[in-house]
Design brief:
heterodimer; A: mainly beta; four-stranded antiparallel β-sheet; 11 strands; B: mainly beta; six-stranded mixed β-sheet; three-stranded antiparallel β-sheet; 9 strands
Chain lengths: ~120, ~110
């Protein structure tokens, strides 16, 4: 069974940094692209960033480009999101998700973690 | 950027058929994916590549697409189907995935 467990969510002030982590199990982690998505409570879903299995291709939503950095450690079966210069509109539940494609990223999300809450407030 | 439009809410009686729509320009040329999200839970993929079902998803869930509208059809609706449903595809202009705003399905 695929399991994705996020951690690192916290309450921070605007302008500060935070690092999210996601540990994967139940599948061959280094065969799949991985993604971060987010959701403001009560609102819709937004894709944030994605990384291919070998980290060769990385992309970001325009809203986080230049502030957030995605990375992965296949030996640790882990996905990360470094978030810098946090703003009030970054406040959301952040989900780690597995790509639906084997090796080739297909940009749909067939397994999701339970999410970790990031609050940005002064 | 590519915009996906979903009605905010739909309602259906138990045992009836729910048809949830997702509008986008020439959406029938894209792969569309659908997610179910119940309150306090993470989304679950219920249809991918417009009409395929992941393992474990009941056959009552099906997807289709024509022209500018993709549709998620839920047959023989049950109380447990009450949830938010989101469509998603690829925005070739912005070069990233894009979601519709979601439809809240109420089972009467």
């Amino acid at each position: 069974e695929v399991q994705l467990v996020e951690s690192g969510g916290a309450s921070v002030q605007p302008g500060r940094s935070l690092r999210l982590s996601c540990v994967a199990s139940g599948f061959t982690f280094d065969d799949y692209a991985m993604h971060w998505l987010r959701q403001v409570p009560g609102k819709g879903l937004e894709w944030v960033s994605g990384i291919t299995w070998n980290s060769d291709n990385i992309n970001y939503a325009d809203s986080v480009l230049g502030r957030f950095t995605i990375s992965r450690d296949n030996a640790k079966r882990s996905l990360y999101l470094q978030m810098n210069s946090l703003r009030a509109d970054d406040m959301a539940v952040y989900y780690c998700a597995k790509d639906g494609g084997l090796i080739n990223a297909l940009y749909y999300f067939d397994s999701w973690g339970q999410g970790t809450l990031v609050t940005v407030s002064s | 950027s590519y915009v996906l439009t979903q009605p905010p809410s739909e309602s259906v009686a138990p045992g009836q058929t729910a048809r949830l729509t997702c509008g986008g320009i020439n959406i029938d040329t894209e792969n569309v994916h659908w997610y179910q999200q119940k309150p306090g839970q993470a989304p679950i993929l219920v249809v991918y590549d417009t009409s395929d079902r992941p393992s474990g998803i009941p056959e009552r869930f099906s997807g289709s697409s024509s022209g500018n509208t993709a549709t998620l059809t839920i047959s023989r609706v049950e109380a447990g189907d009450e949830a938010g449903y989101y469509c998603q595809t690829w925005d070739g202009t912005g070069d990233h995935p894009v979601f519709g705003g979601g439809t809240k399905l109420t089972v009467l």
